[in-house]
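Re: beginner question about structure tokens

> Can someone show what the tokenized structure looks like for a real chain? I only ever see the sequence side.

Sure, here's an example I had lying around. Input first:
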Amino acid sequence: MHRTGWIVVLFCLGVGFLMGGRQLGFLLGALLFASLLLHEAGHILTAAYFRVPVHECGIKLGGVYIRRGYALRRRDEILIAASGPMVNLLIVFPLLCVPRLGSQIAMCNAVIGLINLVPLPSSDGLHILRNLAPYTLCATSRLRSEPATESWCRNPLDPSRIKLDKP
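And the corresponding structure tokens:
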């Protein structure tokens, strides 16, 4: 754990105490932190399935993270990136059946899952979008800088390579 990782742990506990008060705050905070770990476990298990090496898992100010190699196919990269938010979203409904704490932790997992799908810097959503972009850019007939070859599709977000045809 990075020295700033404690801020994430304290943040989870703070949210837990805000949602559950003195009685349930610590438990809610611990469950929220466990939700973050389950999110990363989703990435790790999917990466292992596709035989992508995971070099590190840790906690720092930005949250829980993994450092891993790259998959051989874009589809696998998309599935690895989407697996974390999907874990959070899949456990929402079973959590709703848990009395007293379930609805609060379910809401936290829904928020974690949905926010991670938004294409913000260093988010799963941006990683998914970057890997989906070649499929949409290569299939779009109005984009003409080079033929839609695999080499062009490898780096579609380089603005110097994209030129729009004039109508």
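Each token stands for a local structural state, so reading them left to right follows the chain. Residues 5-117 form one domain.
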